[in-house]
């Protein structure tokens, strides 16, 4: 039987990869296939990374996130795109993670460099559908997305 150990070196490597990635984030998957029944992975995210507000509609697609290092902001939205709640997540803070039920509009932003979290949700992996991407949020990779991400960041200042 073999074991994969998770040390600070792995998290450092993942953060370096996120900084080098144009999307400013990088996964380290523990599941072996997109078809696995449980998706488990580390996700490094850097300030400026735009995670389009989205929701998961399938009844079995609840999402759980636990901070390992750094700080991220969780943003919850209503159907019209108005922010309904914000939470700062950090490993040693009052709030170190979340569990979101399906249908909840949300996004995350990195509040400091080197932020890494562990995420799990039911598989198989399915790309977001049009109904799961917020119609009121700009598409990733656009100039408007950078402005939208900066606006989300203002909720934490």
TrEMBL record:
SUPFAM superfamilies, A to Z: RmlC-like cupins (SSF51182)
One protein family per Pfam: DUF6016
Record InterPro entries: Cupin_WbuC (IPR027565), RmlC-like_jellyroll (IPR014710), RmlC_Cupin_sf (IPR011051), WbuC_cupin (IPR046058)
Residue ranges constituting the Cupin fold metalloprotein WbuC cupin domain according to the UniProt record: 6-89
Protein name (database record): WbuC family cupin fold metalloprotein
Organism: Uliginosibacterium flavum
């Amino acid at each position: 039987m073999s074991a994969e150990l998770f040390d600070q070196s792995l998290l450092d490597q993942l953060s370096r990869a996120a900084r080098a990635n144009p999307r400013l984030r990088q996964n380290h998957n523990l599941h072996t296939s997109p078809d696995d029944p449980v998706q488990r992975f580390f996700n490094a995210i850097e300030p400026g990374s735009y995670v389009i507000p989205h929701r998961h509609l399938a009844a079995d697609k609840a999402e759980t996130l636990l901070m390992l290092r750094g700080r991220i902001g969780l943003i919850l939205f209503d159907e019209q795109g108005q922010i309904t709640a914000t939470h700062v997540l950090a490993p040693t803070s009052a709030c170190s993670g979340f569990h979101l039920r399906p249908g909840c509009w949300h996004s995350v932003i990195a509040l400091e460099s080197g932020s890494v979290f562990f995420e799990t949700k039911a598989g198989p992996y399915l790309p977001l559908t049009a109904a799961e991407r917020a119609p009121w949020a700009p598409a990733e990779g656009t100039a408007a997305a950078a402005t939208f991400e900066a606006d989300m960041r203002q909720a934490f200042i």
